[in-house]
Design a protein that fits this description.
Elements lengths: L1 E6 L5 H11 L8 E6 L8 E2 L4 E3 L3 H5 L7 E4 L6 H6 L5 E4 L9 H6 L4 E2 L6 H16 L2 H10 L21 E5 L3 H13 L2 E5 L5 H6 L3 E2 L2 H7 L2 E4 L13 H6 L5 E4 L8 H9 L5 E4 L19 E3 L8 H19 L19
Parallel strand pairs: 1-2, 1-5, 5-6, 6-7, 8-9, 8-11, 9-10, 11-12, 12-13, 13-14
Antiparallel strand pairs: 3-4
Helix pairs in contact: 1-12, 5-7
Length: 351
Amino acid sequence: MKAAILGDLFITNEVLQKALEKAFEGSGVQFEYVYQTDEWPVKPVMKTDEVSEFVGDENEVCEVVGDVELILTHTAPITQKVLAAAEKLKVVGAARGGPVNINWKACTERGIPVLYAPGRNSGAVAEFTMGLMLAQSRNITRSHMSMMVEKRWRGDLVTWEVVGKELNSSVIGLVGLGAIGAKVARITQAFGARVLVYDPYVSTEKIKETGAEQVNLETLLKEADFISLHARYTKETRGMIGEKEINLMKPTAYLINTARGEIVDHVALYKALKENRLAGAALDVFEAEPPPDDSPLYHLDNVTVTSHLASASIQAAEIGARVLAEGIYNYICRQETPKFCVNPDYIQHKN
């Protein structure tokens, strides 16, 4: 069986191949491989009208997939043109939580399931979220930058007006309670925090199981000391944290975003931060990545920013590859309907 391994600099060809061979161990299936590597995350992701959050050239991908039956990738563009070139393709998958770099509709029309790996980075993002909360609220970022860049000792960061609250006396507001949000809920409760959750797609029972309290968005924004975003980016969530929502937050509150930049109106956020209507923000994602050189972000002192790092860990890469490979094995060898399949209606078009 011929497989195209289209890795990048995070989930490498070696990681993908190792996971595939581990999943098929003892099955008797022998693989022949073709490879390609794109330059994510050193090269920023791109977006077209067809696919998004991809890196690489579809024409170059077409050159290697001509007679493959499997495609395993992370960020390569799997477009209609690529699919047309892969005439023998049986299954395609991305080792990521949302395979937005794959044209699902074109795959469905060919009867090809699109597999993915939901929750593969939930542990990594949850831990990183905690790091951002602490870095911003306890002035770790401010002190580090002052000492390393300016060689300045900031005694003023220990004054009453500047010091932050401990998590054990804070209210944490989680917007979204998927795999990541649920882990953040458990971790913050271990610190002793009270946790509020707004997620209209999660049952009251599930929220109670995490030990959190279900509230509406307005209540969460008004009461939380930390508002942490964990909602998936959709048409409904685009700009859901705008000027109106920011004005509901406490002036002592912090906004944490490790979800997607488009969920926040950054113009309104930067204005509130500049006017000190919020204590601060910690952002791992932005409307444009990287932000433009003239972004007002670079003139704010009360922000911790990172370059979309939250999901990056060795475990996240290995889990994503393993979940994807196991799904492919179950589909090919056990002839099971894929558990993590973004286009289950592919079956209606399968020959």
